[in-house]
Amino acid sequence: MTIDQYWGISTGDTAKAGWHVQEHYAHFLWFQYLRFSPSYLLARKARTIGLSKQEKKSLPKDFDRVLKTYDLLGDVHNTVFRYWWERNGYEVFGVPYEKPVAQVISVIEDGKRTKKQYQEDFGRFLDDESKRKSMGNSLVLSIPLDGNQTQSLNQIKRYLLQYKHLQQPNPKEIKPKLNLQGQRFNANALIKGFGLLMFKAAFPDMENWRLGVSAKLSDSYSPALNHRAKRQTKDAIEAGDRILMGEITYRSLQKYQLISENAARGRFPCSDALDIAPFDWPTLNIQYQKTVKWEDKELARVQKKANNPK
C-alpha cells in the first residue's frame, strides 16, 4: 500500500465484507465540509467533554439532528478521510449486501437420513435467506449426483429459461442511512467553496474581494485582481472589479456556510436555509490547524512504517 492511499479520496481499495456502497468523490467533500461546520464542532464537544452554558444558548433549533449525524459520522478532525471511511463510510452510506450465488441446501443420501433432517436443512436455508437483503427469487432443484453431468447442466439451463419470468426487476430496496443529495455535482465549485471557508477561517478580517480572489471563485475577476494589492485602486476598472468580486464572495460565503451546516444535518451537497450556529472563524481555524498538524504527524508515522516494514 502506498502513502498516497492513506490520504487519497478513492475508496476502491477499502472494500468491507458484507457491505456495498456507490462510491463518489462527493463523500470526501462531505467529510471536508463537516470540518467547517460550527454546529458539528459543537456536537463533537457535546459528545466528548460537554457544552458550556453559553454554548447551549447558541445552539440551533435542530441541534438534535446534528447530534444524530455526529453519532453516525463521528469525529472528522483527528483522522484522515481513509480512516474515517473505513470506520464510518460503509455502514452509513452503504447497504448490507451479498452477491447471490448457487449453494447446496442439502444432500439426499439413500436411506441414511430422515425426512425431518432434510426439513431442518431447508428450514435453515430459509432462515438464512430471510436475514439477507432480498436479491430476487430462486429455484430449488434436485440434481442426481450419479447421473450424466452434461445432461444435468442442460436441464438446469432449460429450467432457468423456463422460470426467467420470475426474476424480480426491482427487488426490495434497503436504503443507506445517509444519501448524497441529487444526481449532478459541481466538483469544481464545491472545491472552491471549501477553499473559501478555509481562507475565511484563516483570515476572518480580510476583505471579501481578497478572499474571493484567494479562493479563485471567479474565472473572470479572480485572475484580474491581486489579493495582495494596496487598498487604493489603480483606476475605476479595478475599483469596479473589486466591488463585483466582493459581491460574488459575499453570496458564496452564505451558500457554502449553508452547505457545511446542511452537511452536519446529514444532507450534502445542500444549501437550504436553516437555523445555524454562529460561525466563530478563529475557533474553526484553530481546530483545523490542529487537524493539519495531526495529519502531518500521522503521515510521518505511516511513512516511517512503510520505509521500515519490520
Q: How would you state the average pLDDT, rounded?
A: 85
Q: What shape does the CA trace take?
A: elongated
Number of strands: 2
Low-confidence stretches: 1-6
Widest sheet, order of strands? 1-2
The biggest beta sheet is recorded as: 2 strands, antiparallel
Intertermini distance: 15 Å
Structural class: mainly alpha
- Please give the count of helices: 12
Residues in β-strands, percent? under 5%
Report helical residue fraction.
40-55%
Radius of gyration using CA atoms only: 28 Å
SSE topology string: HEHHHHHEHHHHHH
Secondary structure topology:
Blueprint: H1 4-7, E1 19-20, H2 26-34, H3 38-48, H4 53-57, H5 63-73, H6 81-93, E2 95-96, H7 115-130, H8 149-162, H9 187-202, H10 208-214, H11 236-263, H12 281-307
Antiparallel strand pairs: 1-2
Walk me through this protein's architecture.
This protein is an all-alpha fold and 310 residues long. It has twelve helices and two strands, in the order H-E-H-H-H-H-H-E-H-H-H-H-H-H. The protein has a two-stranded antiparallel ribbon with strand order 1-2. Helix 3 packs across helix 5, helix 9 (187-202) packs across helix 11 (236-263) and helix 10 crosses helix 11.
Q: What would you say about this model in short?
A:
With 310 residues, the protein is mainly alpha-helical.
